[in-house]
Structure formats: structure tokens, C-alpha cells
């Protein structure tokens, strides 16, 4: 039942933070392990192996890996194209690793972008991605409706001269709500890339939110014409330029408390550290 | 430098060469690098007066009357006009005027033919540093080419042979006894100035035609008789050079065609090939262009970076399609303009991006850099004529004359005619029409002046030929751009400047977000804007696809390009059944 207050205790948030940290750590390790010649399937399998070794029990969705122009979803027509392919990593290619591990019902959903060797376009995208994180948080804190924020993100993308790649995700979403999963059924079984327990939770959320005229999915449609409901939102701006795409994905805490309406669950994340390093340099 | 009677100029020095006395003329500081200018037939050194004056600002410029012409002595025998002797003359002059340093040779017509003889002489690099050849091929190269074409008589080869033969009729006449000298003596020498002016567009100048024309022309026939036939048969020799050679081909040369120098890189591998929009007597008609090209080349051989057009003309270098091209785009801060800038950058071009929003233009320039090319951003209001002139001057001074200009800046405006105010009309016409006029004029002038061609792209609209009651002001402005482009194409064709009119159709860009609507209040404006933006977004034809079409239009020289399917269909309808479109204009769409 959605409420006007945050349902999670500090302890819950700490658990979410831990899972998110684990997910990013595994992504960073996998990124370091990547080298030219590796395929997307091998990369996704490596990411999964590391997550399971880290104690992950189930997945909100299966781990993804995209290389080259697939990071910008070029030529994507059907959802099956999201699944890891036999695309081989080459020198200079960008890549994106995306995973959503679950431990004890606590879910993280992260996206990690990188490149092998030199890639000037990627460097520019990476530097500019920072503005999106700041813009989204500011607009959420100011209480704007989700569809309005989506449009402002689009306007920033247009100003930058990039293009919106999150619109390729099912439902054009830039984000979605994340709850603690309480579902039945075997863990680790997936259907169309999503865990079956996830599908139960997602279905339940979709129905209950829709009854309140809201959506757990964050897009530019009418269903998103409301301010974000208190809870956790996995936010994933994904931008592209030519054949290079980059994204980050992390949890945003919407509190329902006017004193501190929203904040990013964790600032100690690879993309944030990258920007800090750039600024220091 | 005045030398008294302009008709008869005293030589600055006399150089002896194989029993012949050559009259030599010098300009500029002898301490500078020496440029040796060699004239053709039936001219004298005075054909270079304009070029020499310009080059003398930075070089030691030397001209001379070749044997048989002007003030130089004239041996009687035909065999005394053999190329090896003419080459020896050139070396003798070079030795006299620049004993320590090799000279840069710039030569025209027969001067170029004899300079080829000198340049391909073994050991020429000790006396010659570079060679700029205008309208005068190496006869041995031509001989090899003719033999090769005859040995493989494909239709293409035969056509090229026949084509050059048509341009070389006079050479055959010159081989006949009596006729040519008689024509010169009895009639042509007196009429030459008139003939040049009528046929070649060369106005007479103080020194040209020279007072010695009659005797120069008659004696000079020996050049043809002594050298031509022997080379075009089995007599063609292997003449190669490692020296840098710049070939300047006048596009409208009635005597020496481009086909004659085809394959020269086999003999002169360090080759630059340039075209100038002019006729055969380009040193007289376009001295500034020749002086500029010669200077650029000599400076580059001396180690300075090459100009953009010089880089582009180097033969045998692999380059991206628009590498070493400068493209100027207006309204480049968003939409079609930005994407056009980026598409040209991807094809290798340097890009000047301008926009009324300077920050947006700079951002485009930055993205050009990200794509690996060079971009420069400028703020520009295209409605301000003096601002556009200043902009063109600044761009030319800082980056060079652009090769391609895309007049893209435009605004949208909708609503019925009766509710469109005079102010609305001015705003729409100022940007959409006057902006294009200013851009075409400021840059077109410079392209013509440079003489190396260019390209202008005007972004019109499907509305240019699709009448609708919803867009009277906008459609009128775009129809004007369409017609302007058609007229301009006719005018600039002779200068090798192409003009394309782009008619995009419904494309998802910023134009709908900034459009205004006649007779609508503030809130209504916003609603209409959102509606138009939504409609255009759902149509989902990206500006990048338009940009691709623009690049292609320039590549292929397409005059009119309707881009989206709806633009194509209505373009066809406007030709096949304009009445249908007139009827449809009554429908209210927006």
C-alpha cells in the first residue's frame, strides 16, 4: 500500500545501500576484468558469477552487458535485443554493465558505463552525465511531476546535442520504483529476463499504483503526471551521441518529508567518484 | 616601377644563353626568395605584370622575354626553338638572378611547356625549388598519353582524344607552311587585342598585347614546328621529376584541357592539382588568384602549413570526403543546423557554427571537436546585415573562405493571414528570407573572389511549394528562399559555386518550440506550441536524417531536395497537379 511517508527504516535503507554497493563493486571488478575479445555474454556471465559469489540470491532482472553501438541501443527494435549478444569487445569501444541483484528482498538496480582504451565521445558523455544527476535531484526536491522532470531531462539532452536512450527501454522509462520484495516462488528463475518473483512484485505495484492514479514507472506519459511517491526509485538516465551510450542507475530516496524531500541513497559510487576526480584534475 | 614608355620597357639585365640575348626584368627585394615567371605564346613578360606586382611584396620576382619574343633576340632557324634550348635559357636566367639559391618557377602556356623541360632535367633540383604550371603540359607526357589512349581505343579514351584535338586545331594549322604567319602578319596581329577581349574576356592593358606582337607571334610559330610532332609519336621521352609541382587548371581554358594532364602524377609524384574559375589567360584576368596560389605553394614548400585549398589539392593523399573543407552553418545551435554541422564534421570538415544563442553555437563547436574535427562557435543574428558582414569578414580572416555555407537559421510562425500583424511579417521575413539573403551575399562574394568554387545550401521548407491557410507568412518566406536559390544557382554556376535548396518537411526540431502563432493569446500560444511539438515528435523524423541529405546534396550537387516522404509527395503534386494543393490549402490543419 503506497503511503505519503517513507516505509523504510534506516536499517532497511542501510540494507539497500549495501546491495547497491555490492552491485557496483561487482560491476567495477567485471569492468576491470574486461579486455578486447570478450563477448557480451561472457561479460554478463562474469558479472552474474561475481554477484552470486557476493551472496546475491535472486535478480530483479538478469545482468546485461552492452558493447559498442549497442550501448546507445542503435538498431534496437524488439526487447530481446537487450539480452547479451555475441558482440565482441574491441579497443576503443564503450560498454555498459547493468544488473539488479536482490538479497533478502532488498533490491538494487545499477548501471555502469566504461570504455576500453581511448574514446573521446565517451569522455564527453561521461562528464556531461553529471548534470543529469544534479538536475533530477533538484527537480524532485522541488516537487515537480515525474513527466515534467522527464521533459526537462529531454530538454537538457537536446541542449547538449545528445539523444535520449532511456526511451528505448520498455515503457520509455527513465526510472521505476523499487520495493522490498516479498514474493513466493523459486529464486533465480527468470521470465523474459525478469525474475519471476520480480514480476509478481512489479505486477502488484503496477495495479495498486494505477488504482491511485499513479505509476511505479517513470516516463513522459500521463500516468507519470504526479510527483514521485515516497519510496525508493531506481533512476537511470541513459544518453547517447552517435554510436556511444552511457548511463548510470542508482536509488533515489523520496521521503515525503518537506524538510528533506529527496536524496540519493549513496554518493560513494563510481560515477560520482569519477566526476570528483575530474574536478580535482 | 616606371620604365618610361609602357609599350617598350627596358630590360633590367641581359642574360646570354647559347648565343641568344635574353631581356630580364626584376621586381621586389633581391634578398627575398626568387620567383621566376615564364610567359607563353604569343605573349611577352608583360603578361605577368599584375601577378609580378603582387608577388613582389614578398618575393624577388623575375620575368624575362623568351627567345624570339619581346626584347630578347630572335634566332631565325626553327631548330633554335627546341625545348632543350629554351630550358637552357631558363637555367641561364636562374643562374644570373639567383646564383646561390634555387628558384620557384611559375609558368604559363608555352612558358610552362618549356619549364617542364627544365624541371624534368636531371639535376633540376639544384636550380629549381618548385614549379607552378598553368595551362602548359609536358609534351612528352602528352605523347605517352596519346600513345596509351590509341593503344587502348576504348570509347572513353577516343572521346578524350577527340576532345583535345578539337581544342588543338591551331596546332595543326601552325604546322602548315605560310598560312599561319600570313594570317598573323596580314590581319590577326592588328586584331589580337579585340579577339582576346571578345573571345577570352581579356581587356587590353598597358603592356599587353606587346608592341612586338606581330614579330613575336610569327617567330613563335617555330615553337610548335620545332617541338610538337616529334613528341607525339614514338619520340616521347621518359621525363620525370621529384620536384613539387602545382598544376593550376583554368576551368574555362579553350586550348589546354584537364584531360591533357591526366596521369601526370606518374611523372611528378609530388603533385598538387588546383582549378581556378577562369579562362586561358588567367595571369591577366585573375592576377590576385594566381599570386595567392603561387604564394601558398611556395610558402608551403618552404615549410609553412598549407592553406586548406592547397591541402585539398594534393594528389595521392587519402582523405575523408570533406576533409580540408570549411563549412559555415547558421542556426547551428539546435535541430537541423546542429546536426548538419556534426554530419559535415564526421565527413572530415572544419565547422563554423553560428546561432543567435552563442552558448548553443559553442556547444555545437565543442561536439564537432568531440567528433575529431575542428569547430568554432559564434553568436550571430542573421537579420542584422552588418553583423552578418562582420561575421563573414571575421570567419574569412580567422579560418579562411568557407567552401560550403548552409543558411539554415529559421523561425516558425502559424495562423491566419488576416490575424498576422505587420510586425509578425517583418520578424518572419527578417529571419527566414533576409537572413538567407545576407548569408548568400556576404559569403558568395568571397567565394567568387577566391575563384576556387564553393557551395551554398539554403534550407527552405516543404511549405515553399505547399500552400496552406495555416502558414501564410512562413510559407511565403520559404517560397522566396526557394526562388532566390533557383536564381542564385543560375548566377553562380559560372563560378563553380553550387546551390541546393533543402525542403525538409515535418522534422522534430526546436522550431516548433519557438514558433509563434498569429491571433493567439499567451496561453493559447503555449498550447499550440505543445501541440505542434507533440505532432512533430510523433512524426519522429530526426534532424540527423535531414543533415545526411544535406551532406549528400552537396556531394552530388542536387539543386532541390525534398527530404521527408511527405515533402517528396507534395513536391511531386506541386508539379503534377498544383490545383490539388490549392484545394487542400483551404483545409485547416493546425
From TrEMBL, chain B:
Residues 34-287 form the AB hydrolase-1 domain. PROSITE patterns: ADH_SHORT (PS00061). Pfam families: Abhydrolase_1, adh_short. The keyword Oxidoreductase applies. Gene3D superfamilies: alpha/beta hydrolase, NAD(P)-binding Rossmann-like Domain. GO terms for molecular function: oxidoreductase activity. The keyword Oxidoreductase applies. It comes from the Bacteria. Keywords: Oxidoreductase. Belongs to the short-chain dehydrogenases/reductases (SDR) family. NCBIfam families: PRK05855.1. This is SDR family oxidoreductase.
Amino acid at each position: 500500500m503506497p503511503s505519503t511517508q517513507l516505509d523504510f527504516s534506516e536499517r532497511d535503507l542501510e540494507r539497500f545501500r549495501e546491495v547497491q554497493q555490492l552491485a557496483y563493486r561487482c560491476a567495477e571488478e567485471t569492468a576491470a576484468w574486461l579486455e578486447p575479445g570478450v563477448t557480451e555474454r561472457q561479460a554478463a556471465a562474469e558479472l552474474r558469477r561475481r554477484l552470486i559469489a557476493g551472496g546475491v540470491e535472486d535478480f530483479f532482472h538478469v545482468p546485461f552487458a552492452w558493447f559498442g553501438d549497442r550501448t546507445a541501443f542503435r538498431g534496437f527494435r524488439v526487447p530481446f535485443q537487450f539480452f547479451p549478444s555475441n558482440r565482441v569487445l574491441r579497443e576503443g569501444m564503450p560498454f555498459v554493465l547493468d544488473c539488479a541483484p536482490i538479497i533478502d528482498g532488498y533490491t538494487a538496480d545499477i548501471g555502469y558505463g566504461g570504455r576500453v582504451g581511448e574514446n573521446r565521445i565517451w569522455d564527453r558523455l561521461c562528464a556531461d552525465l553529471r548534470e543529469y544527476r544534479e538536475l533530477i535531484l533538484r527537480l524532485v526536491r522541488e516537487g515537480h511531476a515525474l513527466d515534467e522532470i522527464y521533459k526537462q531531462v529531454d530538454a537538457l539532452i537536446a541542449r547538449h546535442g545528445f539523444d535520449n536512450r532511456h526511451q528505448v527501454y520498455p515503457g520509455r522509462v527513465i526510472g521505476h520504483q523499487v520495493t522490498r520484495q516479498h514474493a513466493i516462488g523459486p529464486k533465480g528463475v527468470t521470465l523474459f529476463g525478469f525474475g519471476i518473483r520480480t514480476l509478481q512484485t512489479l505486477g502488484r505495484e503496477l495495479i495498486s499504483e494505477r488504482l491511485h492514479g499513479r505509476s511505479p514507472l517513470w516516463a513522459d506519459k500521463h500516468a507519470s503526471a504526479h510527483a514521485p511517491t515516497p519510496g525508493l526509485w531506481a533512476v537511470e538516465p541513459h544518453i547517447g551521441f552517435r554510436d556511444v551510450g552511457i548511463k548510470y542507475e542508482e536509488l533515489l530516496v523520496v521521503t515525503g518529508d518537506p524538510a528533506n524531500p529527496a536524496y540519493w541513497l549513496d554518493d560513494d559510487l563510481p560515477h560520482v567518484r569519477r566526476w570528483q576526480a575530474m574536478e580535482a584534475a | 616601377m616606371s620604365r618610361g614608355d609602357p609599350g617598350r620597357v627596358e630590360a633590367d639585365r641581359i642574360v646570354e644563353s647559347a648565343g641568344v640575348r635574353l631581356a630580364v626584368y626584376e621586381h621586389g627585394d633581391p634578398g627575398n626568395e626568387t620567383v621566376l615567371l615564364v610567359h607563353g605564346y604569343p605573349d611577352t613578360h608583360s603578361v605577368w605584370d599584375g601577378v609580378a606586382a603582387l608577388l613582389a611584396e614578398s618575393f624577388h620576382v623575375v620575368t624575362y622575354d623568351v627567345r624570339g619574343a619581346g626584347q630578347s633576340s630572335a634566332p631565325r632557324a626553327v631548330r633554335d626553338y627546341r625545348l632543350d634550348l629554351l630550358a637552357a635559357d631558363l637555367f641561364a636566367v636562374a643562374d644570373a638572378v639567383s646564383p646561390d639559391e634555387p628558384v620557384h618557377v611559375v609558368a604559363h602556356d608555352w612558358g610552362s611547356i618549356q619549364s617542364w623541360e627544365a624541371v624534368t632535367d636531371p639535376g633540376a633540383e639544384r636550380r629549381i625549388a618548385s614549379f607552378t604550371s598553368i595551362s602548359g603540359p609536358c609534351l612528352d607526357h602528352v605523347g605517352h598519353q596519346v600513345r596509351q589512349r590509341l593503344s587502348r581505343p576504348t570509347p572513353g579514351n577516343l572521346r578524350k582524344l577527340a576532345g583535345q584535338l578539337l581544342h588543338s586545331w591551331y596546332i595543326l594549322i601552325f604546322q602548315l607552311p605560310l598560312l599561319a604567319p600570313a594570317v598573323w602578319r596580314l590581319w590577326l596581329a592588328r586584331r589580337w587585342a579585340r579577339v582576346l577581349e571578345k573571345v577570352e574576356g581579356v581587356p587590353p592593358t598597358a603592356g599587353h598585347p606587346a608592341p612586338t606582337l606581330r614579330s613575336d607571334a610569327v617567330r613563335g610559330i617555330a615553337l610548335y614546328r620545332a617541338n610538337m610532332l616529334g613528341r607525339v609519336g614514338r619520340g616521347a621521352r621518359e621525363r620525370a621529376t621529384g620536384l613539387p609541382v602545382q598544376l593550376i587548371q583554368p576551368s574555362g581554358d579553350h586550348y589546354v584541357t584537364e584531360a591533357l594532364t591526366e596521369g601526370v602524377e606518374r611523372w611528378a609524384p609530388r603533385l598538387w592539382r588546383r582549378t581556378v574559375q577562369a579562362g586561358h589567360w588567367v595571369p591577366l584576368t585573375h592576377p590576385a588568384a594566381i599570386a595567392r596560389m603561387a604564394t601558398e605553394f611556395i610558402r608551403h614548400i618552404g615549410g609553412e602549413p598549407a592553406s586548406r585549398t592547397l591541402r585539398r589539392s594534393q594528389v595521392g593523399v587519402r582523405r575523408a570526403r570533406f576533409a580540408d573543407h570549411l563549412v559555415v552553418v547558421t542556426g547551428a545551435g539546435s535541430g537541423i543546423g546542429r546536426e548538419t554541422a556534426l554530419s559535415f564534421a564526421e565527413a572530415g570538415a572544419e565547422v563554423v557554427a553560428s546561432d543567435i544563442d552563442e552558448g548553443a553555437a559553442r556547444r555545437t563547436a565543442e561536439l564537432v571537436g568531440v567528433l575529431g574535427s575542428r569547430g568554432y562557435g559564434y553568436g550571430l543574428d542573421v537579420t542584422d546585415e552588418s553583423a552578418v558582414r562582420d561575421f563573414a569578414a571575421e570567419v574569412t580572416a580567422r579560418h579562411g573562405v568557407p567552401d560550403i555555407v548552409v543558411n539554415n537559421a529559421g523561425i516558425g510562425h502559424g495562423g491566419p493571414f488576416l490575424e498576422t500583424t505587420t510586425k509578425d511579417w517583418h520578424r518572419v521575413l527578417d529571419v527566414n528570407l533576409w537572413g538567407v539573403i545576407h548569408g548568400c551575399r556576404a559569403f558568395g562574394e568571397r567565394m567568387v573572389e577566391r575563384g576556387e568554387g564553393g557551395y551554398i545550401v539554403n534550407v527552405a521548407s516543404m511549405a515553399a511549394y505547399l500552400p496552406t491557410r495555416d502558414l501564410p507568412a512562413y510559407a511565403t518566406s520559404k517560397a522566396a528562399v526557394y526562388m532566390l536559390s533557383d536564381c542564385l544557382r543560375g548566377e553562380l554556376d559560372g563560378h563553380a559555386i553550387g546551390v541546393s535548396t533543402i525542403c525538409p518537411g515535418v522534422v522534430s526540431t526546436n522550431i516548433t518550440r519557438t514558433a509563434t502563432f498569429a491571433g493567439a493569446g499567451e496561453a493559447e500560444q503555449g498550447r499550440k506550441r505543445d501541440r505542434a511539438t507533440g505532432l512533430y515528435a510523433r512524426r519522429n523524423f530526426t534532424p540527423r536524417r535531414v543533415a545526411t541529405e544535406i551532406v549528400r546534396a552537396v556531394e552530388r550537387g542536387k539543386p532541390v531536395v525534398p527530404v521527408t516522404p511527405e515533402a517528396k509527395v507534395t513536391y511531386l503534386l506541386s508539379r503534377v497537379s498544383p490545383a490539388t494543393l490549392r484545394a487542400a490549402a483551404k483545409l485547416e490543419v493546425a
